[in-house]
Backbone:
């Protein structure tokens, strides 16, 4: 019988400058006190300037920043106080067969200061489409911790882990749109199964 392993969760907060005039997180003054144990808040930002990212981070203790826009390595470095705050970088993988031409190895090298590279489908806008790209077209070896995202459901998350886990240092999964149906108690239906499957992909503490 294998020993039980702790499951860590990250809860994403979408932060956009237009949402709140003063700060993207100005509507969450009590957030640090509301976050339960073993849950890391993630500030998801899209082309937000460094000053606003730093201000938002100051309001939420222990948060990780997820850059999901066109931010350069230097943008990410400065917005996280020279990488003193942990951060993730989203890689937008094409949905068609051109995914094989996306140089994920070089992308991971360019953003080597990131805690992990989040893999999401390249769609109009910046994520949140619930679509999955062709995981089998990823390079066979990526020197980075990866987070698999985009179109994950209880039906396919196991397959995604099987295909992607051998290609990277460690793997985590990001489930959102695939498990957002709510039951009568307001709990995400299907959430338990993806989380259970995800625990087998760990292989380290990188993600």
Residues:
């Amino acid at each position: 019988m294998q020993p039980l392993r702790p499951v860590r969760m990250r809860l994403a907060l979408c932060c956009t400058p237009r949402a709140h005039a003063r700060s993207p997180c100005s509507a969450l003054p009590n957030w640090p006190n509301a976050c339960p144990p073993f849950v890391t808040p993630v500030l998801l930002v899209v082309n937000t300037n460094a000053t606003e990212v730093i201000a938002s981070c100051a309001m939420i203790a222990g948060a990780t920043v997820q850059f999901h826009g066109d931010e350069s390595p230097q943008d990410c470095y400065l917005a996280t106080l020279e990488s003193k705050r942990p951060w993730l970088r989203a890689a937008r993988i094409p949905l068609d067969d051109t995914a094989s031409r996306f140089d994920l190895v070089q992308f991971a090298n360019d953003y080597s200061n990131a805690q992990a590279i989040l893999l999401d489908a390249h769609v109009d806008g910046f994520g949140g489409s619930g679509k999955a790209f062709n995981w089998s077209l990823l390079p066979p070896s990526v020197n980075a911790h990866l987070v698999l995202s985009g179109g994950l459901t209880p039906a396919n998350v196991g397959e995604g882990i099987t295909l992607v886990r051998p290609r990277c240092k460690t793997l985590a999964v990001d489930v959102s749109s695939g498990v957002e149906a709510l039951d009568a108690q307001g709990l995400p239906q299907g959430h338990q199964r993806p989380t259970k499957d995800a625990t087998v992909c760990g292989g380290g503490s990188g993600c």
Notes: The first strand starts at residue 9 and ends at 15. The radius of gyration is 17 Å. Residues 16-27, 181-207 have pLDDT under 50 and may be disordered. The CA atoms of residues 45 and 67 lie 5 Å apart.
